[in-house]
Predict the 3D structure of the following.
Amino acid sequence: MCIRDRYQRRVRGTRIGRMGCECRDTVILAIMGLSSLVFLAVGAIFVAPYWLFDGTSFLCSTILGVMAVKAMENGEVSDKNTEDSTTNHKTKVLATATCGVAAVSILVEVGFMVTAIILWKDEMNPYHRTSYGKDGNSFFFCSLYSSICNLFVVRHFYAMRASSAIPLMTGQEGAQETRA
């Protein structure tokens, strides 16, 4: 069951919600984790350094993403006793790190897509064991999938980062804001 209210905030009487709900967190993390396992396995089987890189980047994004979601769920706030102490600092940092890993991966994947197009029928992987994973055509669609998936990761965790910067109003503060 999706519980949208968990991530929604009240600011000046207007509800501002984080992109999606818990089920989207679960889906995107599951896709990232599965992609990591597939790319690591295929990269190891076919001795393809690019697929190993992609699997490792998905693994890093998955770990950081799980930590960001857990921090958001736990509502952990920074230890600073300042005016903005209600800002979820840990979630913001972890979501930013997840975006960073995915964004760097997108740049690498676009480079590999261009290289795969140029070397479509030529050898692209000098370490290949079989004919699959040798030519550029073996890498193009994997690069396309990875860049699209990482684009969704950046979008999702950027929205999480943005929503963690909005002060959380609960209890008396939320009731007073609603009456005003």
